[in-house]
Description:
Layout: E1 24-29, H1 33-44, E2 49-53, H2 60-64, H3 67-81, H4 86-89, H5 101-125, E3 129-132, E4 134-139, E5 142-146, E6 154-163, E7 167-169, E8 181-183, E9 196-200, H6 204-216, E10 219-224, H7 235-247, E11 251-254, E12 258-263, E13 268-272, E14 277-280, E15 282-285, E16 289-291, E17 324-326, H8 337-351, E18 365-367, E19 373-377, H9 380-385, E20 390-396, H10 401-406, E21 412-418, E22 424-430, H11 434-446, H12 451-455, H13 466-486
Parallel strand pairs: 1-2, 1-6, 2-3, 6-17, 8-15, 9-10, 9-15, 10-11
Antiparallel strand pairs: 4-5, 5-6, 7-16, 12-13, 13-14, 18-19, 19-22, 20-21, 21-22
Helix pairs in contact: 1-8, 3-5, 3-6
Flavin-adenine dinucleotide (FAD) binds at residues 29-35, 52-54, 57, 60-62, 66-67, 70-71, 134-135, 164-167, 184, 205, 292, 295-296, 328-330, 335-338, 340, 368.
EC number: 1.6.1.1
Protein name: NAD(P)(+) transhydrogenase (Si-specific)
Family: Belongs to the class-I pyridine nucleotide-disulfide oxidoreductase family.
Amino acid sequence: MTTESIPDLAPTTAPSPEDRSYDYDLLVIGSGPGGQKAAIAAAKLGRRVCVVERKHMVGGVCVNTGTIPSKTLREAVMYLTGMAQRDVYGASYRVKADITVQDLLARTQHVIGREVEVVRAQLLRNHVDLVSGTARFVDPHTVQVTGDSGAGDALITAATFVIATGTSPARPAAVEFGPRVVDSDGVIELEKVPSSMVVAGAGVIGIEYASMFAALGTRVTVVDKRPALLEFCDPEVVESLKFHLRDLAVSFRLGEEVASVEANANGTVTTLSSGKRIPAETVMYSAGRQGQTASLDLAAAGLEADSRGRIEVGHHYRTKVPHIYAVGDVIGFPALAATSMDQGRIAAYDAFGEPVRDLTALQPIGIYTIPEISYCGRTEAELTADSVPFETGVSRYRELARGQIVGDSYGMLKLLVHSDTKELLGVHLFGTGATDLVHIGQAIMGCGGTVDYLVDTVINYPTLSEAYKVAALDVTNKLRAVERFGA
Ligand SMILES: Cc1cc2nc3c(=O)[nH]c(=O)nc-3n(C[C@H](O)[C@H](O)[C@H](O)COP(=O)(O)OP(=O)(O)OC[C@H]3O[C@@H](n4cnc5c(N)ncnc54)[C@H](O)[C@@H]3O)c2cc1C
Ligand SMILES: NC(=O)c1ccc[n+]([C@@H]2O[C@H](COP(=O)([O-])OP(=O)(O)OC[C@H]3O[C@@H](n4cnc5c(N)ncnc54)[C@H](O)[C@@H]3O)[C@@H](O)[C@H]2O)c1
């Protein structure tokens, strides 16, 4: 939550590096992407930095329960099911016939372990102290750290603070969670791949896990109270995703609310507000997240959180208490790992008077469904609402040599181009490599480039990047046709 109401204070309120009146120049609470980058940025400025994190959570939600486990699980699913190769070797192609949770977890645990080591090593070599435990404010310059091992509490003082405590899954009071009813933390600890599953809440988390389980052969029913899926994305792309998921036996119950979930030893029954009852072996709840601020005693620091546990910040992520910053998921939208990292870096620079630029408005979105989705810039609906004249250019992977080689016949790239200036306004991708490929379009848009750049640029062959060239020529042909027909 960023707001204009918090004053943009400058210059820094932090003491000089020589001032030793506090234990640290910066104390960071939480070691997820936001906290890590804040700590390292401050350490690079020669500051004395400490990070407080729970023993089993080094690397944050990102490494332990969120981004990294889910994306590694997806990779394991893609490999073991042979999903990406079925266009080439046939619909019955599998790398392994009976995929167990152990098969999937082997890869996930390996990657998590390595990532935790990377985080520890980076903090260590930058001389950042990592203190194990849960932090709670005692006053605006002091936290009490309760050790995980039951060791006594420690009081640590600091001149400045970055709160990067992230979020945890929101758990409705009416739903009893257990072995059969899990949230996104519990789904990576299931004992077996369920034969059927209800996914309650089709945000990004819900739809990514729905894709993975559907690929594993689970019969998935997706329920969401919103009438449309991923409504911020290009509707054509979302339609393609739904087509693919339906092909994997996913059912959609959109515009429907989960009223209650009953679980027993045999399975679960999810009741919707419309009265429908859906039986399934497992239910995964992914109906939003809650800021992890309850344990912080924010009032002792002069702060408060909203009803969803989020902290309000102003320019450069400063809270209303000038020496305390908040970054990452705990401040709300967009709640992404990459954004959190940059917010952490910017907050640390601001705290210590280092000149820093704001993030550019052009933010990429990457959704790791099967197949994956990515976009950057404007959507057709936004441009139409703003009366911006535009033309589209489309490239289908099935017409690219690399698309045939990798066996992706469904992928597509769509460019949105200003009809008069030829400026690139948006890029939307669906299919193999979408989350990487989007950055070509982002770079062109970031530099104010036009579609002519793509027309005049030679692109390696055979690559999926060639989709940009094909789509650019498509737009240009359409624009030329308007001129020709108009004349
Ligand atoms: C299932 C899932 C999949 C995701 N996939 C993606 C993705 O593909 N791409 C993407 O960009 N983002 C993804 N995200 C979001 C991404 O994980 C977050 O945006 C990112 O982790 C937020 O970073 P953060 O800095 O806010 O800290 P977090 O990673 O949220 O970590 C916060 C840390 O603070 C610690 N903490 C909390 N309170 C205290 C306290 N009082 N004392 C000490 N420590 C404390 C916690 O233990 C935790 O380790 C996903 C999230 C989930 C849940
Ligand atoms: N690839 C990525 O970038 C990625 C992946 C996963 C998560 N994330 C981040 O994590 C955040 C949280 O994701 P999320 O999916 O948990 O939250 P969300 O708030 O985006 O989605 C929750 C969904 O649950 C629905 N819902 C809530 N209560 C319901 C009910 N009773 N019945 C039916 N539907 C209900 C809502 O309508 C909403 O669509 C995202 O906003 C995103 O920033 C990002």
